[in-house]
Amino acid sequence: MAIRQLPETLINRIAAGEVVERPASVVKELVENAIDAGAGRIVVTTAGGGKDLIRIEDDGAGMDEADLRLSVERHATSKLSADDLDDIRTLGFRGEALASIGSVAELTISTRQAGAANGLRLAVRNGVKSHPVPAAMNRGTTVEVKNLFANVPARLKFLKSDRAEAGAVTDVVKRLAMANPGVHFVLTGSDRAESNWPAVTGEGALGARLAQVVGADFAENAVQLATVRHGIVVAGLAGLPTYTRANSLSQFYFVNGRSVRDKVLVGAVRAAYADYTFRDRFPVVALYISIDPAEVDVNVHPAKAELRFRDAGAVRGAVIRAIGEALAAAGFKASTTVGE
Ligand code: ADP
Ligand code: MG
């Protein structure tokens, strides 16, 4: 049996499996790109649970023709400077999303930079890109993804119902909106009733965004977190011990502006409420950690949803303290001392 080099389009399709699991992962990648491009307003439209259509419109910086051509190539990114994986400040950095999406869906990108005479549109079909053609549009970028996984039947079969996939898209957009209160989000399309969360800025912006996205009753039944400990900033809202849910779906964790799943944070919240909440009840929390990027490794998971803290104990201690102190200040007194 002879070894042969796989064609580029097939390599991309195989790699796509790591980045693009379902419609929600496409939405996450594209909205993160819009945020990285400095968008002030992002419109997310889906149909057929995102399988038929995903469209992300932003009013960000846009791309010139050379960047547009490069954007759909694998490992092409404008974001990783001086090959420094220890200092990642943008949401993207692998340069893999657009190439991956283009190999498993019909991808069309329209983009226009400020001052450009016109916009440009590039299409990728079966992993092969077209020449950019002029397009009439305002400043920003619109990415359209149609017939996701039509050429990967095994992956298509694995997807859940349109309703469930649309729900996963909603969850992803909610988290991105919670992490970026200064960005106006619209979530629309035939899959759903429209959500419209105008930008909020200044003091109280975070609380206002959480009220928009999680609900006004959460904001009213929560204490504000604002502590710094060993250089670890803990902010956000922690629900009162009397305001709990039957599952952990309403616990939201962010580290340096990125929504994450992390056992250290989940464990710290559980410990912080151990004296207050009943078994099998979960407090509602939106926890925002800011920490020196060098203290976190975000490169452990292809979708970047997981991370590793260099000093997990310090993070755990900071979270337990922040919540414990805020609850105590609100009159909830722990029966035992909460702390490290
Ligand atoms: P990454 O985000 O990891 O760099 P992507 O494949 O998601 O990789 O995007 C490749 C490049 O395309 C980005 O680095 C950026 O320069 C450009 N790009 C993608 N989406 C947008 C957008 N919405 N607005 C402006 N530039 C974009
Ligand atoms: Mg990206």
TrEMBL record:
GO CC field: mismatch repair complex
Record bears the keyword DNA damage: yes
DNA mismatch repair protein S5 domain segment(s): 210-328
Any one Gene Ontology BP term: mismatch repair
Membrane spanning residue stretches: none
Listed GO MF terms: ATP binding; ATP hydrolysis activity; ATP-dependent DNA damage sensor activity; mismatched DNA binding
Assigned keywords, A-Z: DNA damage, DNA repair
Family: Belongs to the DNA mismatch repair MutL/HexB family.
Described function: This protein is involved in the repair of mismatches in DNA. It is required for dam-dependent methyl-directed DNA mismatch repair. May act as a 'molecular matchmaker', a protein that promotes the formation of a stable complex between two or more DNA-binding proteins in an ATP-dependent manner without itself being part of a final effector complex.
Name by which UniProt lists this protein: DNA mismatch repair protein MutL
Originating species: Devosia geojensis
Gene: mutL
